[in-house]
Amino acid sequence: VLKFNVTNPFDNEIIVFTYQNIKSLKLHDLAGNLICFGKSAMIHVPHISKGVYILTIDMDKSLQRIKVFKQ
Description:
Elements: E1 4-6, E2 13-18, E3 22-28, E4 34-38, E5 42-44, E6 51-59, E7 62-70
Antiparallel strand pairs: 1-2, 2-5, 3-4, 3-6, 6-7
């Protein structure tokens, strides 16, 4: 069973809590444009506008996409 938690809504950073190894995090806007990329469990995004984004979490055994909200 895959378990992870994400700070959602987020303010200046997105943090993924999981026991899985995280290969990368990618944040896209709803148009599909890449906003930010990181190779750890946290990405720092104080420069983006409030709104809805898609977070892609690439882990050892899975790829997850979830909606996240910047407040």
